[in-house]
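Subgroup meeting minutes
Present: P.N., E.W., G.H.
Scribe: E.W.

1. P.N. recapped why we're keeping a running log of single-chain structure predictions: easier to compare across weeks, and new members can see raw inputs and outputs side by side.
2. G.H. added today's entry (343 aa).
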Amino acid sequence: MKSKVGLLIDDRYLDHAISRPSPENPERIRKLASIVRERYTGKCLIYPARTAKSSDIEAVHSPFYLQQLREHILRDEPYSYDRDTYLMEHSLHIAELAAGGCLELADRLMAGEIDSGFALIRPPGHHAEPGRGMGFCIFNNVSITAQYLRRKYKLNRILIVDFDAHHGNGTQEVFFDTDEVLFLSLHQRGIFPFSGEMTEVGTGKGEGYTINIPVFPQFGDAEYTFLLGRILQSVVEQYLPQIILVSAGYDGHKDETISGTLLSTEWYGLITAMLKQYAHEACGNRLLMVLEGGYNPVSLEASVLATFESLLTPRQDKIGVFFSERANQLIKNHPLRNYWTLP
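Output recorded in log:
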């Protein structure tokens, strides 16, 4: 059966820009957005963004933080708020469009109009905490989406998978004390934001619902596939999520200089196929992927296109997962075994 895929693209995301050099810039997605429109119009349902409401954003971020953003927008120094997160005249509105674009796809997904979706947005979001932005991130797009799904659709088993090279510290903080959102992050250890240790498992009702897998530099396709295949399949079978949200970061690619992991372009298509399979088995195909990192425009373009092709490919047989001793050592005594059964 042909997959019904929704793509969120909007040229207004290019308006968040600064004249100084920054890895997070419009050129990351300018050509990619053009290619996607040309190649996938007619094959996918393509949607523009909408502006997230204040109530949607304040379900994650504090009013005090929003006021701080408004004040810093008026200053002459773009980095007055954070040394990695610039704020220009249009930045706040673009961030509202980034979050709103994800909500647009979420509504389409819940209505059954699409089976899966990809939000080609910027700025990214998974580092943004309730009370502050950081690491290029202004609003936490995937967290705002999860809270929206909880509030509007009363979902209480949401799985967020984050395979960005950097830990999704903001997403973890938002959901650290709830069992209604399970957060799983696979990220390189020892790099920004210097969080995401395997001992960070949640608190209160959320204990066991945060799973961090910090990997070593030089890990690549084999290790990542083993880790996600082994852990995700087991967790999905036990948690039975009603939807799978993905913080899709592409900065773990071997051609990126911002990380030391060695993922190939093809791996991003492979993991998308695996996530599609898990979504089919657990939650009626509901899969929503949200762009996070990826700062080499060439490898980002190729990897996102590999993701799109995988989303559009009719469902395949289960993907085999080969054993990796190096990766297995990471999870042999992992605290997640106190909460979830692994093979």
